[in-house]
Each structure stands twice: as C-alpha cells, then as structure tokens.
Design goal:
Layout lengths: L1 E7 L3 H12 L3 E8 L6 H14 L7 E3 L17 H4 L21 H12 L3 E5 L4 H9 L3 H4 L2 E5 L15 H5 L1 H10 L2 E4 L1 H4 L3 E2 L1 H9 L3 H20 L6 E2 L1 H10 L4 E6 L1 E3 L9 E3 L11 E7 L1 H17 L1
Parallel strand pairs: 1-2, 1-4, 2-3, 4-5, 5-6, 6-12
Antiparallel strand pairs: 7-8, 9-12, 10-11
Helix pairs in contact: 1-12, 1-13, 4-5, 5-8, 10-11
The protein binds beta-D-ribofuranose and calcium ion.
Beta-D-ribofuranose binds next to α1, α7 and α12.
Keywords: Glycosidase, Hydrolase
Protein name: Purine nucleosidase
Organism: Liquorilactobacillus ghanensis DSM 18630
Length: 315
C-alpha cells in the first residue's frame, strides 16, 4: 500500500480529501500535518481530529504545522475563509470534541523522518499553503530527491486565480514558500485548471444523506454549505469544486489527468503576487520538474470519488 501524508488547512474540501484517502484501500494514510488558511492552524488540527473520529480512523496521527506564512514580516495571520468554509471551517456543522490530542512531536520532523523511512514509497499531498513543505526542505534539502511523489493542490496556469485575478488561495497564502517549492521539488500541480471542472452537486450529497449514517449526514450538511457558498461566489459553476480530494485522487492515480512538463515559478512581487507560471528562461532545459495538470478525466474521477466516499460513509 502507498504511504500518504496529507498537509492541509482543514476546511470542507480538505475534509473530503481526508475521506478519500481513508476510503482508498490502496492508501495507508500515515499522518496528517495541519496548516493554516481556511482556518487558523489550531482549528484546522481540531477539524482533522474530528473528521478522523467521524470516519473511525483514529489511528492516523495529526501534527500541528506552522501557524502563518514564512513572510511573517509582511503579515502575521491572514484572515480565514469563513465565507466559503464557515467560521469553524467545516460548514458550521457540529461535531463532538475529539477524544484525542494532536501529537506532541514536531510536524516537520515527523515528515522528514517519514521520508527517510519510506523514501520512494511515500506520497505527500499538500492541499493548503506550502509553508510546511518549504520549511521541511530547508531543514532536510535531500528530501526532494528521496520522496516518491508530491502532488499538490494549488495555483492556476490556464485560468485566472480565485482570490485575486492571478492567485489561487493556497499559493496566495505564502507565495515565497510556494516559489521555493516549485523551483526545487519534483511535483505534480493540480491547480484550478482541473479542480474547477470536478464539481459536486446536491444530487450527490442527497445520496450521502440517504445512507442515514452519522458520517453521511455530516458530510452532506458540510458540502451543502460549501455548495451554497459557490452559488454566491461562482454561480456559473453549478456545484462546488473538489479541489483537495482531486489532488488526492491524482496522487493515487495520475491517469486522472493529462499533464504538461514545465519548470515553474511563483511571482512574489506585489502586482502579480501568487501567480504560478512556466519559466520561459528554462523552457529548453531538460527534465522539467513540475507536471502541470491541464486536462481531467472528470467522469471517471467523480465515479471513483462517489464510490469511495459513499462506501466509507455507509459503514
Ligand atoms: C484551495 O483553497 C482552499 O480554500 C481550499 O481548501 C483549497 O485547498 C482552493 O483554492
Ligand atoms: Ca485546502
């Protein structure tokens, strides 16, 4: 089984990413690292613990990662995304306080040690800002050659951003960290180019509600909240985007997307802050390090997504 670590800022689609990873029998989810973004890091960690408990996956350790952007001289903590994910990050649904605490150990050391141990068998899926990954690479630069796969949700290449004209939310939180990661690590970029095509509607959440289980009802309520937010902010889409669980899907089965290989960088200048771009200066260099997902097998992914999650919520 593939070993996987998720690095996420547990809002609603991050919760779906956790569920997808827990549901896939090919995946051994060996840990979760908490990030900030949709919510503050402490709340994201609590949400991860609550979701794991709801899914009866209480053997997955949760570590608290870094609390704010590596550009902390510019800003300390950015506002959370309450209008999309709710004040509590999980669509205002009420889950019991988790019985477990987050792990006491250092999140970056946990990740670095896992890379040492599992090497090519380890997949990292960041679905929040890249602050933790950047800091881990600084602490252990060789990890970029050791790790088997990094598949992240972030950025956009062929479509505009979702928080500014040029920036996607995760990259916009810490473009400096993202730039370091994009320049150094081999990775697959699952950006808005493809995640805005994988949409969920109330038809699917009704299927979960019909299961009449705790998990089915909780996820249906949570995702209905997310769908409502999308109806306000992106009425043309007719559904909510499965950003983060699509990154997990692609990490497990890269054939869900077509990619183009580029050397990427991230703009940190104010005017185009957070834009992810193919570097023209390195176009002729061999072995570009980033695979940019540009086309998605949406129907096949959605079928897999529903099979995995409905099966899990039925338990
Ligand atoms: C990304 O930003 C967050 O709000 C979502 O969880 C996702 O990771 C989409 O731009
Ligand atoms: Ca996220």
């Amino acid at each position: 089984r593939k070993k996987m670590i998720l690095d996420l800022d547990t809002g609603i689609d991050d919760a779906l990413a956790i569920a997808y990873a827990v549901a896939d029998p090919e995946v051994d989810l060996i840990g979760i690292i908490g990030s900030y973004g949709n919510v503050y890091v402490e709340d994201g960690v609590q949400n991860s613990l609550k979701i794991l408990e709801l899914l009866q996956a209480t053997d997955v350790p949760v570590y608290q990662g870094l609390a704010h952007s590596s550009e902390s001289d510019h800003f300390d903590r950015m506002p959370i995304s309450a209008e999309i994910h709710g004040q509590n990050g999980i669509g205002e649904i009420d889950l019991p306080a988790p019985k477990r605490q987050p792990e006491k150990g250092d999140a970056l050391d946990f990740f670095i040690n896992a890379v040492e141990k599992y090497q090519q068998d380890l997949i990292l899926v960041p679905t929040g800002p890249l602050t933790n990954l950047d800091a881990a690479i600084k602490r252990s630069p060789k990890l970029v050659d050791q790790i088997g796969n990094i598949t992240l949700m972030g950025g956009a290449v062929t479509v505009p951003g979702n928080v500014t004209n040029v920036a996607e939310a995760n990259i916009n939180q810490d473009a400096t960290a993202a730039d370091h990661v994009f320049r150094q690590a081999p990775l697959t970029q699952v950006g808005l180019d493809v995640t805005l095509r994988t949409l969920l509607t109330r038809k699917e959440t009704q299927q979960w509600r019909d299961l009449k289980t705790k998990a089915g009802a909780a996820f249906a309520d949570m995702v209905d909240y997310y769908i409502k937010a999308y109806e306000v902010t992106s009425p043309d889409l007719h559904g909510c985007a499965l950003h983060d669980p699509f990154a997990v899907g692609v990490a497990i089965d890269p054939s869900f997307v077509d990619t183009i290989a580029l050397n990427m960088y991230v703009t940190t200048d104010k005017k185009y802050y957070g834009r992810t771009t193919g570097d023209p200066a390195r176009l002729s260099k061999p072995n570009p390090n980033v695979k940019v997902a540009v086309n998605a097998d949406v129907d096949r992914y959605l079928a897999s997504f529903m099979e995995h999650l409905t099966g899990l919520f039925a338990k």
